[in-house]
Specification:
The radius of gyration is 16 Å and the shape is globular. Helix 2 (21-27) packs antiparallel against helix 3 (105-120). By secondary structure, it is α/β, with parallel strands linked by helices. The chain has helices at residues 5-18, 21-27, 105-120; strands at 32-33, 41-42, 51-52, 66-76, 82-94, 99-100, 103-104, 129-136, 144-156. The protein is built from three helices and nine strands. Strands 3-4-5-9-8 form a five-stranded mixed β-sheet, covered by helices on one side. Strands 1-2 form a two-stranded parallel ribbon. The protein has a two-stranded antiparallel ribbon with strand order 6-7. A hairpin with a 7-residue loop joins strand 8 and strand 9 (144-156).
Amino acid sequence: MNDNLIEDYRTVITNHLLTSNLIVDVVGDGKYSNKENTDLIPSEQLLWEKIFPAQYIPYTVQETGTYLFYDIEESVSQINSYLSVNIIFWVITHKDSIKYNNKLKLDVLSREIKNIMNKNCNLGISKNNFVSNTLLNDQLLSEYTGRALVFNVTDFNDK
């Protein structure tokens, strides 16, 4: 069994998120960039400031803005040879900062995450399966609105 599976997946996903110009622009409110030799802050600094490779922890959000959290669950499928891996993304944005180019940030980010997971982020032994895109209704997020996106990946149990 691959004890590093979650860490490996997390590394791949983090790299895809931080190299997406659209995610960097929307989450970073235009203050970050993937390009070198610029006056903007490098996109890597979004990690642990606006993009968290862990489930949302209440009160980690310290300022108004847009945030992306994600985490990974794994379980053995009914056929012991395979693992079922769920990847959950939580996208939240403050009610005063919901627009990006006259579109809702949540919609833009949800679409980009789906594009990354379905087209670019090859994990497991088959395609990544989109499971759901649901609204977050959390009392702790009273000033925020959000979405939860879930993907499922199948991998070998003995990797």
